[in-house]
Specification:
The chain is of the alpha/beta class. The protein has 3 domains: 1-53, no CATH class; 55-229, NADH:ubiquinone oxidoreductase-like, 20kDa subunit (Rossmann fold, 3-Layer(aba) Sandwich); 232-349, Cytochrome-c3 hydrogenase, C-terminal domain (Cytochrome-c3 Hydrogenase, Chain A, domain 2), CATH 4.10.480. The chain has helices spanning 3-6, 10-16, 21-34, 41-51, 67-73, 78-87, 101-114, 143-152, 162-166, 168-171, 201-214, 227-230, 234-237, 241-245, 256-259, 278-281, 317-321, 328-341, 344-369; strands at residues 56-61, 89-93, 119-124, 127-128, 137-138, 141-142, 154-160, 179-180, 191-194. The strands form 3 sheets. It has a 5-stranded parallel β-sheet with strand order 2-1-3-7-9, sandwiched between helices. Strand 5 (137-138) and strand 6 (141-142) form a beta hairpin. Helix 3 (21-34) crosses helix 4 (41-51), helix 5 crosses helix 11 (201-214) and helix 6 (78-87) packs parallel to helix 11. The longest helix is centred in the C-terminal third of the chain and has 26 residues, at 344-369. The protein starts with a helix and ends with a helix. Bound molecules: ligand FSX. Residues 64-68, 124-125, 161-163, 168-169, 197-198 line the site of ligand FSX.
Length: 371
């Protein structure tokens, strides 16, 4: 984020940090492989990135706990973390940047003007719309206002975390701030959702690197998540799955089944309805993931995860059956309509009514299906 570095190409920046051309190609090849891209894409990505200026990234944070950024900066491999930060030009992030106040605002404005139409907008946190947007303000402006302005010149928006992707915990009942996901506010830009509370750091960096090196939005699922990371349920890839198939379930966290590593389904594990890469990429350098540590999956990468009932109640078969058509998809549809017709604070006025409608539809669905 220093001025000296602004003029450097990615190749020059990497050399400055002692990363060889060969090392960078190897890294890009590994990323391409993890993204299931053809083998030739790795070197192609590396060459494209090395020869050009670093793509500008503007990173906004709204209603969130900073867990997403903590996840990203605690990436298991400092090399990978450094690579992504050397590969992009992170022109604005109010937590990481040295500048503050007007200097920070000026840096954001400059990046947006200089790279209009080309920068990647990363957003974490949900967007509050009640109280005239007053629940989340920076520099005297509401989150809605800042988001809309930044979205105008963005090539694409990457929503990091369940809060920006689906509303997350701030959106949970009773949603006291009128929080919405980014897709409810911005309806005319490509949006890539990297959900999880927080997301897996390598999923964030892999998604960003793929987009900035190819300029293409990856294949997305119905919740706009990259299929390469969110294409399988936790249950599909869980090492405890054979116990499920044999009908061997832990009944409490300290019974013989738990000690034997049996399936945690009856203890409330949400793995069957949760799509993410935790069971394959794992966390902390591939050390473990919640199920491997003896606790069920909370389903944090799914829309509405906080309001779906107890984390410790077994999934009903009806809930499992509904997994592919989960209710929050409707929120996004409503949101897209709202983005088309609503001025920033007009949306705020309508937000609570829509939320009540959404909750009532969810309740009706649950009563109908017995979920
Ligand atoms: Fe939300 Fe992220 Fe959970 Fe926290 O930025 S997805 S509350 S880990 O911090 O937005």
């Amino acid at each position: 984020m220093t001025q000296d570095n602004d003029a450097l190409t990615v190749g020059q920046m990497l050399l400055k940090h002692g990363i060889s051309r060969r090392g960078f190609i190897q890294y890009c090849t590994a990323v391409a492989s993890s993204l299931a891209l053809p083998p030739w894409m790795g070197p192609a990505m590396a060459e494209q990135l090395r020869s050009g200026p670093r793509p500008s990234v503007v990173y906004l944070s709204f209603q969130e706990c900073t867990g997403c950024l903590e996840s990203l900066t605690r990436s298991f491999s400092p090399t990978i973390e450094n690579l992504i930060f050397n590969t992009i030009s992170l022109d604005y992030n109010d937590t990481l940047m040295a500048a503050s106040g007007e200097a920070a605002e000026a840096a954001r404005n400059k990046a947006m003007q200089d790279n209009f139409g080309k920068y990647v907008l990363v957003v974490d946190g949900s967007v509050p719309t009640d109280a005239g947007g007053g629940y989340c303000m920076a520099g005297g402006r509401s989150a809605v206002d800042i988001l809309r302005e930044a979205a105008k010149g963005a090539a694409a928006i990457v929503c990091v975390g369940t809060c920006s992707a689906f509303g997350g915990i701030p959106f949970a009942d009773p949603n006291p701030t009128g929080a919405w996901p980014v897709s409810a506010i911005v309806g005319d830009k490509p949006i890539i959702n990297v959900s999880g509370c927080p997301p897996i750091p390598e999923v964030i960096t892999g998604t960003l690197l793929q987009f900035v090196s190819t300029g293409r939005v990856p294949d997305l699922d119905e919740h706009r998540r990259p299929k390469v990371f969110f294409g399988n349920s936790i249950h599909d890839r869980c090492y405890r799955r054979p116990f499920y198939d044999q009908g061997k379930f832990a009944k409490s966290f300290d019974d013989e089944g738990a000690r034997n590593g049996w399936c945690l389904y009856e203890l409330g594990c949400k793995g069957p309805t949760t799509y993410n890469a935790c069971a394959t990429l794992k966390w902390n350098g591939g050390t473990s993931f919640p199920i491997e540590s003896g606790h069920g999956c909370l389903g944090c990468s799914e829309p509405g995860f906080w309001d779906k009932g107890s984390f410790y109640s077994a999934l009903s078969s009806a809930a499992w059956g509904k997994a592919g058509e989960s209710t929050p998809l409707r929120v996004l549809e409503v949101g897209a309509g709202a983005a088309a017709v609503g001025a920033a604070l007009g949306l705020a006025a309508a937000g609570s009514a829509r939320l009540r409608q959404h909750r009532s539809e969810q309740q009706t669905d649950d009563e109908t299906t017995g979920g």
